[in-house]
Each structure stands twice: as structure tokens, then as C-alpha cells.
Amino acid sequence: MKSRSARWIKDWDPEDEDAWERGNARIARRNLLLSVFSEHLGFSIWSMWSVLVLFLSPDIGFSFTAGEKFLLVAVPTLVGAVLRLPYSYAVTRFGGRDWTVFASLALFVPAGLALYVVQRPGTPLWVFLLVGATAGAGGGNFASSMTNITNFFPQRHQGWALGVNAGGGNLGVAVVQLVGLLVIAGAGDTHPSYVIAAYLPLIAVAALLAAWRMDNVDAVRTEPGAQREAVARSDTWWISLLYIGTFGSFIGYGFAFGLVLQNQFGSTPLEAASFTFLGPLLGSLSRPLGGRLADRFGGARVTFWTFLGMSAGTVALLAASAGGGSFGSFVAAFTVLFVLSGLGNGSTYKMIPAVFALRAERAAVASGRDTSAALAQARRLVGAVIAIAGAVGALGGVAINLAFRAAGASVAPALWAFLGYYALCMLITWAVYLRSPARPTAPAAPEPSPRQATRV
Prior knowledge:
Blueprint: E1 2-3, E2 8-9, H1 17-55, H2 66-94, H3 96-106, H4 108-117, H5 125-134, H6 136-150, H7 158-187, H8 192-197, H9 200-213, E3 216-217, H10 226-232, H11 234-265, H12 269-276, H13 278-297, H14 299-321, H15 327-367, H16 371-407, H17 412-434
Parallel strand pairs: 2-3
Antiparallel strand pairs: 1-2
Helix pairs in contact: 1-2, 1-3, 1-6, 1-7, 1-9, 1-11, 2-3, 2-5, 2-6, 2-11, 2-16, 3-6, 3-9, 4-5, 6-7, 6-16, 7-12, 7-13, 7-15, 10-16, 11-12, 11-15, 11-16, 11-17, 13-14, 13-15, 14-15, 14-17, 15-16, 16-17
């Protein structure tokens, strides 16, 4: 029952099919829609420096090197990764609605500061790095949003729900780049402030809608020590390593793609912006599909084949960049990598509730405990795991930008490093989740009943 004064829904149980059909599904979808909108803006603000650096030229009073620009886009990625843990905890403390309102309003800070500095020619790099760091607040939105939404939906729909939530948020990377393209095409490459100004009214709308129509649910509140317990689980770290390969690739490539095209092929800001939005757009749209495929075939299986495809795509990138390089082949291979990373994002996140539910089922059956209580405990643990995996995965984006920065004029050394990591992720997926999926901690634990069985 919802408490209208405090905006909290008590005794929320998404696995109750009767309550789900009577109205809980409608409540969950409404919160999902508004969560997507806020998270979408968060991603746009988080990744806006990948667009703004295309404007920072001597024509408007800025003379940053390519290495300095890669550093500038890496800083928001790093801060966003670090903020994911406290953001995820905050939503369990203050509730999904209340924290979404705050997190949306907080986006005014990086947007306002960026609007100020891009109109101040000669501003030193260290000031830009500090302002860029505040954009990490947009990256933190992802963790709180995903932790919140996972509690609204039953296990059978979580692959789809988490995919839609994350995919809609990821679209913010493509949309801010598309806004940048429209500004460059319409007003030229000397007006970065136009890109930022477009988002200020949308931030206000997101905060107002969250305050008006979102809900807090008691299920999102975790027991004390949930993050400590999650840290102690080996699955948390295996899945985090996989998420470095999928989400780290998506956000790292999204931030770096425009600069790579400029450095590798000498593209103008307009030429780079004309292609940078396409990969993140398709990668965002493919994320819900990855969740759907994981719901049907199992997250581990989809994740394994995704990494195999990403390995092949990286080989294609190496071929396209060899010699003089082929611009068309390079862009096409990069776009395929974005799509595959989106699929992997959806399937890897689906693995989190599935793996922990299966472990809880098997441990409960082995010890004779109540299965429903064990699953409820697993659900509370999942939010902490999502936060940790999201934070660690985002660090992969930092590594990608630093790798491109270190590679200099040729992207080949960075691509070889990425190829090696994708091969490692394939090995982890096969060895831990496909060869012997989610092994129970008690060696003699019997299999759960078919009704209880959860596909990893």
C-alpha cells in the first residue's frame, strides 16, 4: 500500500503475479519511463565533453593537444565510475523518487560550469579538468537508476527492464553527439555553448516529472552490509570484469570516437560529428535486445558470443587502420563494435540477478531453508552488485581513453590490447558460467525444481 504523504510503497513484491496484473505492472512501467528520462540526461551530461572537445580549437581561443583532449574526456569517465557506488547506496537510503529528483537537479552544476568555461578563451587546462570532473555526476545516475528499477520488476522481466532502462540512458551519449552535429552543421564549430544550453530546460523538466510521478519502494532498501557482502562474492568480480569489456567499450569508444577519427584520418569537426553519434545510437538500441536474448537463452551464453563478435570486430578495425587506412571500413567496424557492446551490456547485467537467484535457490534447497526468503535476500544483494559492476565497468572507459592517448598517432597498439581483453572475457565466461554455471557453494546441493530453475 502506498503512503501518499511519504511517497513510499510498502511491501512491494514484484513476484506476486496477481498484484502485478492488478496494477503493479503499471506502476513499475511508469517509474521505468521516468527513470529512463533522467538517466538519459545524465548520460548526455556525462559524455558532453566528448562533443565539446571537437569545438575547442584555436579559432575560439583554445590550443589543447590531442593528448590533452583525450585526458579531458577521460576525467568525467573516471569520476562517473567512482560516483556509482555512493549513488547506488543513496537510492537505497533516500528512495528512488527522492534521489532521482536530487540527481536530476545536480546536473545543473556540470552544465552551468561548462557553459561558463567554454565561453572564456584562454582558460587553462586544469580548470577544464575540474569542470569536466563535475560531469561525472551524470555517470553516477546510472547506478542509482539501475539499483532502483531492478526492484520494481519480477525476475522474469528483469533482462528486458534493465535493458530498456540502461539502453534509454545510453542513448544520451548518441543524442548529445547528434546535438553537437546539428550545432556544427547549423551554426559552425565555434559555438559549444549552444550544445550545453539545449539541456538546461530538459534537466528542470526531468526533476519536476520525477517529483510528480515517481515512487519510492521499500524493496529498494538494502540491509546494512549489503555492499560488504557483495564485495566478498566472487561472482561480483567475475561479472565486473565482463562488464569492463562490454560497458567499458561502449562508454570508452563513445567518448573517444570523434577524437580517434580526427587523429587517425584528419577528420574535421563536422566530419567526425557526422559519424560519432551512429555507433552509440545503435549500441544503445541493441542493449534491450541483449537483455531479451539473455532472458531467452541465458546471459552467459549471449555474453560469450558477444565477446567472440567483439574480437572479430577488433580484428576488422586493425585491418581497416593498417597502412593508409580505410575510413569507411574503420567506421563500419567501429559501429559493429558499438552494437555488440550494447548486446553484451544487456546480457551481462541480466546475469547479475540470474546468477545470484540461482545460487540462493540452490543454497536454500541444500540447507532446507525457505526458498522465497533466500530469493528475497538475493534480490537485496543484487542492487549492491549492480553498483559495483557498474562502477568497475565504467573504469574500462577510462582505460580505453588512456590507451588511445598512449597509442599516439596509431591506434593499433590500443586495439591489440582490447583484443586481448575480449579473449580473456570469453575465457572467463566459459570457465565460470558455461562450463559449470553458478556452482553452488555446498558441493552436495541438489538441483532446484524445474519451477524454481533460473537460467544464467
